[in-house]
Amino acid sequence: MTDFHWRPMRESDLDGVAVVASIAFPGHFEEQACFAERLALFPGGCFVLAAHDRILGYLIAYPWAPAAIPPLNSLLGCLPATAEAVYLHDLALHPDARGHGAARLMIERLAGSLRSLGTRRIALVAVNASVPFWQKMGFAPVRDDPSLTAKLQSYGGDATYMTRPL
User: DSSP letters of 19-49?
Assistant: First the structure.
């Protein structure tokens, strides 16, 4: 199945986003309100992978301070006035959409749009043993930063903070 495309997320997509999130991140539950808030705060960083009326994936990113990891399943309240980084909150694909290059396509699209805004890097927390995947996308683990240890705990034992320069 390759009849899908990335497009801007709409409020009507949030049920589908929640379904994909529950499949992709079963051990990292987030309420639908978190997705809705991020869409409201920074719609330019929210996309879905759609096939007709079905949501097969999503990406949520927003401006954020480096090494300031938002707690899992929490509302942000607001975004910083200035930020040299963008936090890639989630990239999730339904199993039916994996293996077709959709993730790489969206990461490169995001990186290109961020370069034009003057953003210096993308940051994320890799979970579910996904570090090798993110390394293939140009991200590198941030090591030896004790301030990250406590922040990563809510994400699980294998959580790794990673960045990609732009």
Answer: HHHHHH-TTS---HHHHHHHHHH-GGGEEEE
Are the C-beta atoms of residues 93 and 103 closer than 8 Å to each other?
yes
Is residue 43 classed exposed, middle or buried when 0-12, 13-18 and 19+ CB atoms within 10 A define those classes?
A: middle
Q: Are 60 and 89 in contact (CB under 8 A)?
A: yes
Q: What is the pTM of this model?
A: 0.93
Q: Are 35 and 14 within 8 A, CB to CB?
A: yes
Q: Which helix (H) or strand (E) holds 18?
A: helix 14-24
Q: In angstroms, rounded to a whole number, what is the distance separating the alpha carbons of residues 29 and 91?
A: 14
- C-alpha 16/C-alpha 58 separation (Å) is 9
Q: Tokens for 122?
A: 């993308």
Is residue 165 a contact partner of residue 120, using CB atoms and an 8 Å limit? Answer: yes
Query: Using one digit for the tens of pLDDT, what is the confidence trace for 90-148?
Result: 999 999 999 999 999 999 999 988 887 778 899 999 998 999 999 999 999 998 788 88
